[in-house]
Every structure is written in structure tokens, then in C-alpha cells.
Amino acid sequence: MLKNVVKSQLFSSTSRRCCSNKVRNWPKIIFSGIQPTGTLHLGNYFGAVDKWKQLVDCSDGDVILSVVDLHAITLPQDPKHLHSGILHMTASLVACGIDPEKCILFQQSKVPQHALFGWVLGTLTTMTRLYHFPQYKEKTETLKDIPLGLFTYPVLQAADILLYKSTQVPIGGDQVQHLHLAQHLVHTFNNKYGVTFPIPEYIVEAHSGAGRIKSLREPEKKMSKSHADPKSRIEITDTPEQILSKIKKAVTDFTSSVKYDPENRPGVSNLIDIHALAVGQN
């Protein structure tokens, strides 16, 4: 099916220029991806992978999931470690319940159209728009030499989504601005070359703690695979003893009572979120 999806009439000469949006019944296609760096942690699992599993099992459309290794190389990577990471991430997703018999699970760089279409969309994107992405500012704070790929990766992300004419994209709250770029590029492309892509909509569970799992060491920040301190995250491969140790050492506060207050007591609230998700409660 992947081959059929990629062979779209992306640059067909028969496409007509559009003067206004045309209503089409686009087939439901859900797309999402994850970088093959580090080991999956609870934030990844509850915030993304568990939702993917539900979509794969219950969706009435096609679900396409990608191990996005092209995004990983926006920062320096050891080739051997990256190759191992791709295999490890794929195995982790399958172990977490992603059934490749029910969805498409593939390696991004194996489909060269991602890079090709990313270049095309880059000609329709302005530098001013990309400068406003908070993730770019956050990731470049500690870098002396900033890779161009880090600056343009939202464009490649848009290419990932649009290449398969995706209609829905499950994302975290911090990725909404990235999808807005994809939507903007759909309008630009369709108005210039003819109606070619649907406008992708995002799937965000605003009231779920799954999208708010924070670092155990810095509860003001997201739990991250790239954090220097391994005690900041609970990885899916951790032993029960390691999990217990990390929870005991998690940063909280000096108040003995247990109260859910993310704004004033982020450490305690983070542990409550983790416990609630682990036992299946809201």
C-alpha cells in the first residue's frame, strides 16, 4: 500500500489551478512519526504510542507510522548508533502493541520522496515563519553552530504529513504550531497548483495527563529522551527496581500533603499524572 500512496499525482500536469477551496471526500489517513533516538519513556508511551495503538485497533481509515530517521540527523548522530536505534525503536513499537499487520510501519529515509517533497515545500516557506517556532529557539540555545536541518525540519515534517495526503495527525500540544505550518502549505500549494492535498486536522487530548508527562528532575519541562540525566525519565525497559528508585528521587517540594496543582506544585502533580495513567484513571 505504501508504494501506491507514494505514487500520487503530486506534480501531475492535469491538476487545475483552484480559485477557491473545493470540498472533497478525502479517504481517512492518519500519519505520525517518532525519532529513533534514545529509548521510549513513559511520556512517549502515554503521549503517543498508546494512542497510536488505539487508532490502529479502532480506526476506520489507514494508519501510517514512521520511524523518522531523517529528523534524527538534524543533530549529530553516530551512524552505528542511529542504525541500532532504528531497529530498537521499531522493535519497541511492536512490543508496545503496534501491529504491522494492521498499519503501515516504515523507515522514513527508505522513501526518498520525503526529502524531495520537503525541498519543494521549502520553496513555499519563508524564513520569517520558521524563526517563530519555539522548538527551534529552545534547541539552539546551547548550540554554537546551528545546523540548517534543525531550522528547516518543520518543513520536512509537513512533507511527511502531506506526502500521504493525511487527513488526521495525532500530536502533542507543543506540536500544534507545526501542523499549522502544514495547513498553511496546503493552502499555498492548492491555490498555486490546484487542489492536491486535504487540510490535515490534529488529534490532541487536551484534558489528558498523557500529554503533560514531565521530567522527574525538572518538572517544568517535558520528559525527554535526550535529557542528560537518565533519572529524569522512566524508560519502558527499566526494571521495577529502577522505576522505584527514580520515583523516590523525583523532584517534588517541601509540603507533605498530596495535592494536584500543576502550576504551583508541578513535581507532585507530575507523579499524580503518571500514577493515574499507569492504573488507567483520569
TrEMBL record:
Keywords: Aminoacyl-tRNA synthetase, ATP-binding, Ligase, Nucleotide-binding, Protein biosynthesis. The keyword Transmembrane helix does not apply. GO terms for cellular component: mitochondrial matrix. GO terms for molecular function: ATP binding; tryptophan-tRNA ligase activity. It is an enzyme of class 6 (ligase). InterPro entries: aa-tRNA-synth_I_CS, aa-tRNA-synth_Ic, Rossmann-like_a/b/a_fold, Trp-tRNA-ligase, Trp-tRNA_synthetase. Its EC number is 6.1.1.2. PROSITE patterns: AA_TRNA_LIGASE_I. The keyword Lipid metabolism does not apply. GO terms for biological process: mitochondrial tryptophanyl-tRNA aminoacylation. It holds the Pfam family tRNA-synt_1b. Gene3D superfamilies: HUPs (3.40.50.620), Tyrosyl-Transfer RNA Synthetase (1.10.240.10). Belongs to the class-I aminoacyl-tRNA synthetase family. This is tryptophan--tRNA ligase. It comes from Lygus hesperus. The lineage of its organism: Eukaryota, Metazoa, Ecdysozoa, Arthropoda, Hexapoda.
